[in-house]
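Q: Got a minute? One more chain.
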Amino acid sequence: MKTKNNLSWKVCGEAGFGIKSAGMMFGKIFMRSGYEIFDYTEYPSLIRGGHNTFQLIVDNRPVNSVSKSIDVLVALNQNTITQNLNEVAHGGVLIYDKDKVKVSAAKLNGLKVKGIGLPLTTMAKEAGNPLMRNVITIGASLALVGQKLTIANQVVTQNFKRKGKKVVDQNIQALKAGYDFVKENFQEDFLCQLPTLEKKNNILITANESLALGALAGGLNFYVAYPMTPSSSILHYLASVAERAGIVVKHAEDEIAVLNMALGAAHVGARSMVATSGGGFALMVETLGLAALTETPIVIVDVQRGTPATGLPTWTEQGDLQFILRAAPGEAQRIVLAPGDAGEAYELGAQAHNLAETYQVSVIILSDKFIAEGNTTIPLPSIKKLKINRGKLLTQTQLNKIKEYRRYRVTEDGVSPRTLPGMKNGLYIANSDEHDPYGFSEEGSANRIAQADKRARKLETFAKQMPNPLIYGNPKAKKTVVIWGSTKGVVLDVYSQLEAEYKKKIKIMQLQYIWPFPAKFVSHILENSKDILLIEENQVGQLGQLIAQETGIMIKDKLLKYDGRPFFREEIIKALKKF
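A: Always. Here it is, folded:
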């Protein structure tokens, strides 16, 4: 049996077959065996039925992407053979329910795939529950890669403990049945040996969950949302921990109410956050303008999906960038951040609240379905380095020293001292009209220019201390790959696999702080590059358009994808070989 250090595994079937449950347990088993994990799930926007898949990569190195090629495919229905069999690599294995799934030996031989048919339906009934076919396939898969059942038994026990000892025992029996069946009947088909590694202090988490944790670490007080895929799990997670965390979580009636409620909470001093997807964000736009004019700090998360309109509700895309940059009538200031993975989602989820209060603006975090719902292994986050910065929020002692408080006083850095309702001598008016320094409506020419320029200076102030884009690879290389958001994972995973000599020829620039735009830094990098490749998941190259707008540099070579699927490693490998 050959030894490997990675595995691509995929399970497919209808909703209700326990597809995600099986995948999550399989991933946890290998995480506890010392491996790094990244998973990716596909499901249609249906309440029931449809073809569901759960794919994951097991690796001994950090991983944040998936490949099109599969080592082990688990088929729980016939549709899997039709749609996914051609994804199995030569020498790979198909595990299928021979009670319900038919596949010809000739077809398998033609694809150079080994078929392992188990009577899953029969075995599940014998174990006590026909729904346990998924657990049987976990046992079978572990036998294929030379794993023992010790850790698997622990994971299965933990997963079903809430359902009682009888259910736990049935699932342990099902796990062992699949494991023993392969051991006894298919020894010649062992795929590889995945050795147990030293256990790491990792957790398995999505970018949605990680962002929520970061927000909590950053002092979140109030979260309000209307469920919208793929942002909904932020609401689910925060609701589950709200009591322990001491925060308020509200499920509002629609996205218009969502941002208005959050704005009210922020006005009285709560660190407030909302999350939605593009369609929900569209309903928030008027209130976004109100937040800009009243200079109220707030954090908005847009987890992107296929658009426009309802679009592709359960699929991924990076199509909201240009909309996010200019949403709201006129010129409303905002900061835009784009995490590339779960680790960055935690960091930016915490940092966003500091930025919102420091500069008294809306901070918009742009994520997308691929990382938002994809579980990955990251080191257990630490809050020791995080500091809460509330900017120019005055204490009562500070306010007492001010003879005449003006909420919108014109300042050199664009940020005015802020009070909260109820503070003595801190009264002001916050309305949607242009206002004078006290907040009274004022339409005079000089006042309008002074207030508009003051608000604009906030971003100028931030831009001077904003972190630069991240550079990976050889900083002196003349070939530059430009990325943002979730494309980071697949590009860096592929880059790590390149031959050493070719690595020296490439540098990768990731834009994490997107607005205000770091024009000087980006111009310097691109002007000193001979070849530039832009990689993003939308139809027109929206980041490329922004770069052209802010620097005058037109990127001609683009790798764009907008079919709802993420970039697979094979696509990036092909593009970099041509580059």
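A: The first helix runs from residue 19 to 31.
Q: Perfect, thanks.
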